[in-house]
């Protein structure tokens, strides 16, 4: 385990990789960033199945997934980003963010940078 937060994403998904690069450039990710395919998931408290399904933020032994992982990333970035991150952690924005995240995740193979492999489970890539 590390003292620094860890952002885990799907390294086989072009859309996911492009999204992480965007976050690193424009938002400033204050975490160790790694594709789940290279991460020690058991040591981080998660599984390949979960990491294949959603982006993860691991901090202080807790694992946050999907929209809440994105919210944690924004809070950690500080400044105006943290205001948005805190808002995304509060209902009803939390619920809306969850729904939007699920919609994007289910269609990531159709989005810019996405490939047909993005729609396949890891075992079939």
UniProtKB/TrEMBL annotation:
Pfam families: DCC1-like (PF04134). InterPro entries: DCC1-like. It comes from the Bacteria. This is Thiol-disulfide oxidoreductase DCC family protein.
């Amino acid at each position: 385990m590390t003292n620094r937060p860890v952002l885990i994403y799907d390294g086989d998904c072009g859309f996911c990789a492009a999204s992480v690069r965007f976050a690193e450039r424009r938002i400033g990710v204050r975490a160790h960033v790694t594709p789940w395919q290279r991460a020690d998931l058991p040591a981080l408290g998660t599984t390949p199945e979960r990491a294949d399904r959603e982006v993860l933020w691991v901090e202080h032994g807790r694992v946050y997934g999907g929209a809440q992982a994105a919210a944690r990333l924004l809070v950690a970035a500080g400044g105006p980003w943290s205001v948005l991150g805190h808002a995304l952690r509060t209902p009803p924005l939390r619920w809306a963010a969850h729904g939007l995240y699920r919609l994007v995740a289910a269609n990531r193979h159709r989005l810019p940078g996405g490939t047909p492999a993005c729609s396949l489970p890891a075992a079939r890539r």
